[in-house]
Design brief:
single chain, four-stranded antiparallel beta sheet
């Protein structure tokens, strides 16, 4: 059982930066994968970035490569998403998700994840 709480969203102009945080409670995140997904109005939820907790291995969607960085603080059970050079198409609700039952499997698919946060809104204006 894991509870996830996202924060750090807001409104920013194109080219700006935001840092999202996701605090996990209820258990340690060892042997899990933790991902960020986002969902724009009228669109399906899409994969952004994932980190394999124990080793810190990361993977990114093509849209995020070179601009976003996912990281973790083991002591704080916290996951971060540093977003730079933001574009209007980055607008959406960003969700933190944890895969406990099958970590590392189909990490790009939202259905794979067992726990989700409530989301934090990111709005990027032109």
């Amino acid at each position: 059982q894991v509870q996830l709480v996202e924060s750090g969203g807001g409104s920013v102009q194109a080219g700006g930066s935001l840092r999202l945080s996701c605090v996990a409670s209820g258990r340690t995140l060892d042997n899990t994968t933790v991902a960020w997904f986002r969902q724009a109005p009228g669109k399906e939820r899409e994969f952004v970035a994932v980190i394999r907790w124990s080793r810190g291995t990361t993977y990114y969607a093509n849209s995020a490569k070179g601009r976003f960085t996912i990281s973790r603080d083991n002591a704080k059970n916290t996951i971060y998403l540093q977003m730079n050079s933001l574009k209007p198409e980055d607008t959406g609700v960003y969700y933190c998700a944890v895969d406990i039952l099958s970590p590392g499997t189909n990490y790009w698919t939202s259905y794979e994840y067992d726990y989700w946060g409530q989301g934090t809104q990111v709005t990027v204006s032109s």
